[in-house]
Each structure stands twice: as C-alpha cells, then as structure tokens.
Please model this.
Amino acid sequence: GIQVEQSPPDLILQEGANSTLRCNFSDSVNNLQWFHQNPWGQLINLFYIPSGTKQNGRLSATTVATERYSLLYISSSQTTDSGVYFCAVDYYSNYQLIWGAGTKLIIKP
Amino acid sequence: DTEVTQTPKHLVMGMTNKKSLKCEQHMGHRAMYWYKQKAKKPPELMFVYSYEKLSINESVPSRFSPECPNSSLLNLHLHALQPEDSALYLCASSHPVGNTIYFGEGSWLTVV
Model:
C-alpha cells in the first residue's frame, strides 16, 4: 500500500523562527490534507491541498503531486504553533485517509 | 471553535460498564467518522457512516458499537472494554469522498 513519510520527526525552535515540514508519499493520491494537533488533542485541518500552493496567514503549503511530496511552511513561529503536524492522503477515495507519523514541533519562548 | 461537538470530553469507565460517546455536527456533512488515537500515534479509522449507513468497519471489536441516528448525530456505544482501549476517540465529518475533514475536540477515555 501507499507509504506516507514525514520529516523531521521532531523539531525544536525558538519563537520567531521559520520552519519547513515535509510529507512524502509513495504513489499518486487524490488529495492531501495537513493537520495540526495541539497538546490538548484537538486536530485542526490546516490545508486541503492535492496540488499547488495555498496560504493562510503565517502558514502556507505546497504540494507537487508529480514529485509526490508536500511542504508545510510556518513563518514567525509562536508558542501556540507547538504540537504535532500530520499529513494525510486520500488514496482509494473511499474515506480512508492514510496518515503520516507526524512531526512534533516545540516552539520555545 | 470546532463545528463538530463531542461529549463527554473525559470518561473513566470500568470494564463492566456501558457508556456512550456522542458526536454532533451541523455543517450538512453526509460522512461521519470515528477514529481512535493512542499516544504518539496518528489517528486510526474505526468506522465511517455515509448518508447514515455504515460504510466502513475497520475490523473493530464488537465491544465498540456505532450508531448514526440521523445525519447530524453519531454515537459510539462502549461495553466490556479493556484497559488497552484507553485512548483519545475522535469524531469527524466531511462532505462525501475527497473533501476536507473536520474533527471534534475528542473524548479522552480511560478504562480501569
């Protein structure tokens, strides 16, 4: 089956720094979504991005479907950005998202 | 604020208890999901309801019983759980296939 790999697994940064998170997938996908899970467990959908580039405030994402990867950019990090970032892909188009293992981001004040 | 509401947020139950987790959404979505998440792992799909019919059951033990009373509500009935069932249970919804999925805040379940 399709493999979804995220890197780095862990990232520790100072407040104000920029970061790039990567998601690689091993086969063509129908869509890709990025999520942020805060320390209290809430999963927030950040982007639905099967291809192209989207921006939302300090966050932006780019998916290059032909090369099977997606990048999530976080600029001017804040402590509230801490948590785990997951990417998930829709491969079979039957509601079953395939998840990466996540990148744990810690932003220090 | 999430538009998918889950109750209760925390639940502690004994192995002989019967309890239920509840989920509600008012976004007009026709697909609803239950996920289970253990610490430091991504969510694992348990059940999917599409247009109020069970579409996917990921080989979940029968001690977990889903119910979709209408297009806005999703329940997960729990009976005779084991301590290893302790986890975060997440409800989600979306328009059918291939659309943005929205999660509730989750229900933290502890089985003692």
